[in-house]
């Protein structure tokens, strides 16, 4: 389970940052930055992939009550223009900016940090090691999943309510039959191929 040991090494507010949505064929990439209150850390924080959707929703609501939270989004157009790596870095930068103050340290899930002025550290597997990053993973995934549920109503048939834009069988079949939507990432190979096949 993640713990708070990395945060207490630093004086001043420490933000954990994580993203959701690097791999899907459709939809934005969403990042969150969370600064936990050490006196009000919700029970059950963990890597978002280890939690049910209901648990993530409940923890996200709790975090919004007792932590500082910023969310950043990079659009499909930005993903296609910048590539998914740099769009992810942009979303992370926007998430930290959305906090409204500069943290003393930013702990970023993964093996690299954005090009920014913040003092920061990349933590591989951070969502399973660090409570602040775990919190950010929960907020980012819940926010993105909620967006994909809304998009599923606008563009039915792709199964986004269940697959959240990943290349599941129903999504791939709809992509072949119905073609891409404006929310598909044209720079991703299956979408590019579907455009060629139109």
Q: Count of helical segments?
A: 7
Helix content: 40-55%
Residues in β-strands, percent: 15-25%
What gap, in angstroms, lies between the N and C termini? 47 Å
Q: Can you identify the CATH superfamily of the domain at 7-142?
A: Ribonuclease H-like superfamily/Ribonuclease H
The CATH architecture of the domain at 7-142 comes to 2-Layer Sandwich
Average pLDDT, rounded to a whole number, is 97
Question: Spatial order of the strands in the main sheet?
Answer: 3-2-1-4-5
H-E order = EEHEHHEEHHHH
- Low-confidence parts lasting 5 or more residues at pLDDT below 50? none
Shape: globular
Q: Indicate the structural class.
A: alpha/beta
The beta-strand count equals: 5
Question: How do you describe this structure in short?
Answer:
By secondary structure, the protein is α/β, with parallel strands linked by helices. The chain has helices spanning 53-66, 76-82, 84-97, 131-154, 160-163, 169-178, 189-196; strands at residues 14-20, 29-36, 67-74, 105-109, 120-123. It has a domain at 7-142: Ribonuclease H-like superfamily/Ribonuclease H (Nucleotidyltransferase, domain 5), CATH 3.30.420.10.
